[in-house]
Hints:
The chain is of the alpha+beta class. The chain has helices at residues 48-55, 60-81, 141-148, 151-157, 162-183; strands at 10-11, 30-36, 90-92, 98-100, 108-114, 117-123, 128-134, 201-205, 210-216, 226-230. It has a single domain (10-230), classed as CATH 3.90.470.20.
Amino acid sequence: MMFQPESPVADLTNLWLSERPESAPDPGTLHLWSIDLDRSDFRHYLSQDELTRASRFTLETPKSRFIAGRSALRSILGHYLATPPLSVRLKYGEHGKPELAGLPGDIHFNLAHSGHLAILAVSCDCPVGVDVEKIQSRRYMLGIAERMFSAEDFTSLEPLSGSAQTRRFCHLWTGLEARHKCLGTGLFTPTLASGDAMPCGENFTPEAGFCGAISMQKEIPKTENWTGFKFQ
């Protein structure tokens, strides 16, 4: 399944559930979590290396959002594993993609954030990638697209203008990012200029003004088998 942002996309805006799931997602299903990074009541569950990373932020808002995102990630994974958040052990791939350490790989996850919003995707089928972006125009948008997107995607973007072009760009960009994150590769890996490298992907709307994308190394569950949770 190629990313087709011109087609209707799943809109989760009013579908996020407040209760937590009883267990990890079953095969053929997907859990998505919406996290408000500007909540003031987050408890801090950071490892020493995450505390070090947090200390490198010079601006308070990015720092507090990083702390909130990592704390939420540990809380959610701890819920699935029935273990305290600080007991969740993570390891990192060559390009920084986190995964659970010391476990057989039954739970796959990926976290993305833009502004105040973070989205966590969880699957028990195979590695997953997720990206989220606030829909807003960027400088040199067409130049970026010509360099980063496939010829087919660039051709579909170039004739558009205004908000239609911005929305199309954001959908294509999140799709590209999600595929890279699924594979654990860097954004400039050239093989993904062709959509053949990671054909399984789908866009969605997490909330008004944002777009998101999911990518998996096998067929993505139908959207009726997605369940959205709001981290509380």
